[in-house]
User: Which sequence fits this backbone?
């Protein structure tokens, strides 16, 4: 090339300016990360002479996918032109020594990793130079009206895309336990891990080209993510386990954020991370989808049915001899709570009316199209009973609407129906509010008011038989009350039996307390008592069952749940009454205190205090600390080998904040007999 010929030099991707405009500056300032349907700008340097607009020509080549090809649409060649919303375009403006490019992607472009090449045609002749100009990630754009994930509320975008911290919910509907969670979707390496997850999915491994072409579709992406977050069929991220044996991994309740899970999976070469349960699956999927640009939120459904055969009912069996709950031969169960997530998108693959929030459930429960995934399914389809709508509407409808049928099984195997509970499942459905660290009740999004005419219509539409068995008013009524107990304490449960009839009743009452897991598995009966008495008309009988820590403590699951059951049999009749109540024991909270002023890139110390609430000595105490923009996961051993009953221990942990603004530090304490004690604190980091 002659010294006076036009020559392309360095290219500036203007990462900081572009990323700021595209709401990706939190991810990186040194890499280009842009959102589709929105302009971004580049600068190219020219040497030896000026670029002559109208005479010289510049083309842009974009490559994406495993084997870029113009025929497949994964190699895109652009010539300068006016903006066309449905195509990749760019315009240019020259200044002495430079040319400024304004790039524009269509709002339906495929998300993913793109490489940029600039091709120079001096004086409109043959191309004389092609240079690599860098690369970028293209993400979904919920700020763009033409994008399928467009969400027009800035407050909701702040929460469902930009908020790296959130709250998950567990416990019971009578004692809801908020669990702070670090989503961390804007940590520098997470975007790479998200696309690594997509690249390891079964569709991508089976047909990489076809998968690359479908990465413009949030329906395809979100369904792929629900399959890949669990490790049941593929190179997925998290392996689920519910039996309490986590010796060769990390207990699901230990996790306080998605980052350690995603990083462990990525650095191990896509080796499954042990272990997760429903809220972990939902939170990790939420991190991935928020990072990719799809508005997402975690949801908890209290009393969630797991209906394996699609008959929209769950059967519970009791032994007629000792009135104990019998294990179900099928996997049909009612979970104390179950977490999934919702993502916001249009559904052009469905008839009109199904845009908006879509249910996605990455917990591996049942197969869908041959693999463990669930959704996306429109929330509106669930509310209206449209169970023929894809994907997996029958299963999700049952999760919030199934009938629970109770049976008494005799010694000869015959069984008697005790009753049907039509309003036990889907008692309460909640998510974190977009406006504060508090919960929002979204039950009304999923179902009409219990017992309403509209609800009955939906049941019928969904194919549910509206049961009328045992709906007559019974004379005898059982109630169960208790104070909210703290783990480690002894506590009383008060059972009341009222006779609202006009006749005396000769009754046999059996009371029991059983430890259970949150997904309904029965563990150990820790207390039981039976009594027979005459209950006179219009009177009330009370019984007290005292539960002692020394009896229940070692039999609890990591979820600290006890099921209370009262079975009342009226002698000489077929009348049987049953009442159940699940108690979530409260854990103590860690006290977390910031020492000093939180300044960017300046060491900060936090003090953590823990008091042993149990009547036994704890050993093997360890604190885990993490927070987006504050610190990666740190583990600190207890300063004493033994922590005696009532003893307080204090540890200090130091770190250097790497991001400004409102941050949340999450702390977890574990020991041999007390696990998953949580604490958190908000930290506002300022520049020096």
Assistant:
């Amino acid at each position: 090339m002659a010294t006076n010929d036009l020559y392309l030099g360095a290219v500036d991707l203007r990462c900081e300016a572009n990323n700021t405009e595209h709401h990706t500056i939190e991810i990186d300032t040194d890499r280009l990360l842009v959102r589709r349907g929105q302009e971004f700008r580049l600068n190219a340097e020219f040497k030896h002479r000026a670029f002559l607009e109208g005479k010289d020509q510049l083309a842009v080549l974009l490559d994406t996918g495993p084997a870029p090809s113009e025929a497949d649409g994964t190699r895109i060649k652009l010539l300068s032109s006016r903006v066309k919303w449905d195509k990749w375009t760019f315009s240019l403006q020259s200044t002495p020594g430079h040319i400024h490019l304004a790039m524009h992607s269509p709002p339906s472009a495929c998300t993913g990793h793109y490489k940029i090449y600039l091709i120079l045609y001096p004086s409109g002749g043959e191309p004389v130079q092609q240079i690599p100009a860098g690369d970028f990630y293209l993400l979904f754009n919920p700020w763009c009206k033409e994008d399928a994930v467009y969400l027009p509320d800035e407050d909701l975008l702040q929460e469902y895309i930009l908020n790296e911290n959130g709250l998950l919910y567990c416990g019971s509907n009578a004692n809801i336990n908020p669990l702070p969670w670090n989503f961390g979707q804007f940590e520098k390496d997470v975007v790479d891990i998200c696309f690594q997850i997509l690249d390891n999915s079964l569709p991508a491994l089976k047909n990489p080209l076809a998968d690359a072409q479908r990465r413009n579709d949030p329906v395809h992406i979100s369904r792929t993510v629900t399959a890949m977050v669990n490790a049941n069929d593929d190179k997925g991220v998290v392996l689920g386990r519910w039996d309490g044996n986590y010796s060769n991994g990390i207990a699901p309740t230990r996790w306080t954020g998605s980052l350690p899970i995603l990083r462990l999976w990525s650095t191990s070469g896509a080796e499954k991370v042990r272990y997760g349960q429903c809220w972990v699956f939902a939170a990790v999927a939420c991190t991935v989808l928020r990072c990719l640009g799809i508005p997402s939120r975690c949801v908890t459904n209290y009393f969630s049915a797991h209906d394996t055969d699609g008959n929209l009912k769950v059967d519970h069996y009791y032994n007629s001899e000792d009135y104990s709950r019998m294990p179900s031969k099928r996997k049909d169960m009612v979970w104390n709570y179950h977490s999934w997530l919702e993502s916001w998108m249009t559904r052009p693959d469905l008839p009109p009316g199904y845009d908006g929030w879509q249910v996605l459930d990455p917990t591996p429960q049942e197969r869908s199209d041959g693999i463990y995934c669930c959704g996306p399914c429109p929330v509106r389809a669930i509310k209206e009973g449209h169970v023929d709508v894809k994907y997996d509407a029958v299963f999700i409808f049952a999760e919030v609407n199934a009938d629970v049928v109770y049976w008494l099984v005799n010694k000869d195997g015959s069984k008697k129906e005790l009753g049907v509970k039509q309003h036990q499942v889907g008692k309460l459905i909640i998510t974190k509010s977009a406006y504060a660290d508090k919960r929002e009740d979204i039950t009304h999004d999923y179902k009409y008011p219990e017992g309403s005419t509209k609800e009955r219509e939906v049941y019928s539409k969904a194919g549910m038989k509206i049961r009328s068995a045992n709906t007559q008013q019974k004379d005898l009524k059982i109630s169960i009350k208790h104070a909210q107990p703290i783990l480690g304490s002894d506590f009383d449960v008060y059972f009341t039996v009222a006779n609202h009839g006009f006749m005396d009743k000769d009754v046999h009452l059996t009371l029991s307390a059983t430890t259970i897991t949150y997904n309904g598995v029965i563990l150990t009966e820790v207390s039981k008592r039976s009594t027979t008495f005459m209950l006179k008309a219009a009177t009330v009988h009370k019984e007290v069952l005292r539960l002692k820590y020394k009896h229940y403590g070692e039999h609890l699951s990591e979820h600290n749940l006890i099921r209370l059951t009262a079975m009342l049999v009226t002698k000489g009749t077929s009348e049987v009454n049953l009442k159940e109540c699940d108690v979530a024991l409260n854990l103590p909270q860690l006290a977390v205190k910031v020492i000093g002023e939180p300044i960017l890139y300046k060491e900060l110390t936090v003090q953590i205090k823990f008091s042993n609430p149990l009547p036994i000595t704890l050993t093997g105490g360890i604190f885990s600390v993490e927070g987006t923009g504050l610190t990666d996961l740190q583990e600190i051993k207890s300063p004493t080998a033994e922590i005696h009953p009532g003893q307080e221990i204090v540890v200090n942990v130091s770190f250097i904040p790497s991001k400004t603004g409102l941050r949340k530090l999450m702390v977890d304490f574990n020991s041999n007999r007390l696990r998953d004690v949580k604490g958190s604190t908000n930290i506002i980091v300022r520049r020096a």
In short: The first strand starts at residue 7 and ends at 12. The longest helix spans residues 278-292.
